[in-house]
C-alpha cells in the first residue's frame, strides 16, 4: 500500500468519523443478529447486538434497526410499544453486512407477539410466533394499549381537565381546546411547530411540520381550527419552521414569510404567507444548502415574527450539509430571498436560542456597551454562548459541559436572559434518569453556573422547550406537554401537564415533538409525532398563589402625541410580594419615540389593586406601526395571565375613515368550503362605521350582510363567506355611507372555468388568478389552499427534471 493510499484512507476515515460525530441525530442504522452481543451502541455492522430491545434503547430518534437471522423475544408490553414506534425491519443477511434483505431465506423469528399485531410484524420481515415462549403480554394489557393508541387517531373537541383527565387524555391544570389527527392533516407523522399573529387581520396561525410537508392552520378560534393551506414537500421525518413578518410600505400592509428546513434534500423552503387566510405561495427553494436540521430567527419577536430593532431580522441555519454543520446567518433585507452573511467555523450546531439583553452585562461582558444579542448554541457535546451583536464579528463567550451529559440537544433563555434552560435528548436513555431539565444561572455569560435540576416523575425524554413569563413549556415526547414553574428557580416545580400520547410515558421517541407557547390568546399548540396537532390552554392556578397579572385589554387604539394610561390587574391570589417588568417595543420599523412612565410594577403582600403606567406617544407615532407592551419576568409566586401583552395602535385621527381590503381578487381552492375577506379600518376611528356587502355568484342565489365597527375600535374584521364549487366565479360588492373604501368589489374565483357574465367590478381580475404565477423576480410559484392534491407540484418537478427541461416558468 503506497503512502498516498494510506493518506487517502486516513483522510476518508477521519471524514467519516467527523460526520458520525457531528450528525448523531441523523437516522443512522443499528444492527441486530442472533449471533451478536449486547455491547456498545449497535452501530457497527460487524459487531451487531443480540437483542432488539437493547438496540432500541441504543438508537437515537428515527434511527433504523436492521435485524438479521436469529430467535428474538418481544419481552413484554413496554418493548411492544417501543417497537410500534421504531423503524425496525428484519430479514437481513450478515454475510453481505446487512446490505441485502431476503425475508424468505433469512429467518428472523419473533416470539411473544400478541395476535392483534402479528400482521404488523410480518410486514416488517419477521417470522412471527404468537404468544408462546418468552414473556407473554396479558390480553387485557393489549386491549388497553389498542384503545389508547386509537385515541390519538381521532379528532377531538374541547374538554376541560377535571379530576386528572380531559376526555381520554391524562392532564393536570391544562384544558383541551381541540385536536386534529394526522388523518385530518393528511399525513402519517408530525414534527416541529411554530406560529404567528398576522398583523393585517390579527388572526392567529400555527404551522405544523409533517412527513410530507406542512399544514398552515388558522387557530383564531382554537375550538374550531381550520387548515387553510399546505406546503407540499419531500418525505422527511424532520422539519423545522420559523416565520418572519415585515411591513410593505408600497402596499400599506404587512407581509409574512415562513422558512422551512428538512433533513431531506430540499434546501430552504420559502413560503409567502401574505395571501392568508386564503392560501399561500411556495417560492423556489433556496439552493445555498441541501439539508439542514434547524432554522431560527435572530432579533425577531417570537409571537409576531417582526424585527425588534432597525437592524432588521436575521435567519439562522443550524446543522446544514455545508461547512460541517456550522451555523449560517442570512440577511433578511429581502425576506423572500435571504442572502448569506456569516458562516461560523467552530463545528456542528444542532439547535439555537437567541436573547437580547440591555442590562449591566451589555456594558461589561458583551455587545456594544448598551445592547447585546446573545445566542446559545446546542451542539451535541456542549452548549456554547455566542455574542452576535450586529456590527461586530461573532464571538464565542463560553463553552459548557455537565455531568450525565449524553446529547446536548436544545434549550431556551428566560425573558430577562438570567436563566438558560438546557435539554439533553439522550440522558434519560443512556443514564437511566427521569426527565431532566437543567437550569443555568447566566449572570456571567462567560461562566454559566448550574443552578438547579427539575426531574419529572417518569423516564420520558424531553425534547424542545420555551420560556414565557415564569413558566417553561416543554415537549416531553411520550409524556406529552410538561409545564415547569420556575418562580423560584432554585426549586422549579411542575405546574401542569397534558399527555398527548396516552399509550405510555417511557423513554421513547414518540409523542410530543414541539410546543409553541407565544400566541397572545394563550392558546398552546403542541405537535405530536403520531397524534397530530393539540390546541391547549392553561387553567387558572390553584390557591394559594401570588395571583395572576394581566392587561385589561388585548388592543387599544390611541392618538399620536397623547399620554395614554394603561392598567395592569392582579387577581385570583392570596397574597405575597409580586413584581413584573414591562417591555415596550415597536412591531413596525423599530424607530419609535414612545416612552413608559415606569418599567417595573410592584404589588406588596395582599395588594390586589390595579396599577397604571403612562404611555407617551410622539406626534409621528402612526408612521411607525403598532407597538407591543409585554409583561415579562414576573418575580414572586404569581404568574402571567392570558392577556400578558397589549397591542397599541396609533391611528391618524386627521385622516378620513377608511376601510382597506387586503385583496381584491381571491383564488378559492375547489375543495375549500369557505373563503375569508379581511377588511382593515384606518384613519379616524372616533365614529361608528358600517359596510354593506352583497355576494353575487354566477350560478347561485344572492347573499347580503353588514359589518359594523364601534366608535374607538379599529380592529380588522374578517368576513367569512360560504363557497359553492359549482358557482364558479363570484363578485363581492361593497358599500359604505360613512367611510372611504379602497375598493368597492372583490373577485372570488373558484378553481373552475368561468361560465357566465358577472356584475361589473372595478377591481382588475389578474389573468393568473387560478394559478401561482410568478413572483417579482420571475421565480416559479406554487399556490396552495386548504384543499387540493399534495403531490402534483412534485410530480411536475420530477417530470421536468427527467425531461431535462427548463422548469422555471
From TrEMBL:
<dbReference type="InterPro" id="IPR027589">
    <property type="entry name" value="Choice_anch_B"/>
</dbReference>
<feature type="signal peptide">
    <location>
        <begin position="1"/>
        <end position="24"/>
    </location>
</feature>
<dbReference type="GO" id="GO:0016787">
    <property type="term" value="F:hydrolase activity"/>
</dbReference>
<dbReference type="GO" id="GO:0005576">
    <property type="term" value="C:extracellular region"/>
</dbReference>
<feature type="region of interest" description="Disordered">
    <location>
        <begin position="763"/>
        <end position="785"/>
    </location>
</feature>
<keyword id="KW-0378">Hydrolase</keyword>
<keyword id="KW-0732">Signal</keyword>
<protein>
    <submittedName>
        <fullName>HAD-superfamily hydrolase, subfamily IA, variant 1</fullName>
    </submittedName>
</protein>
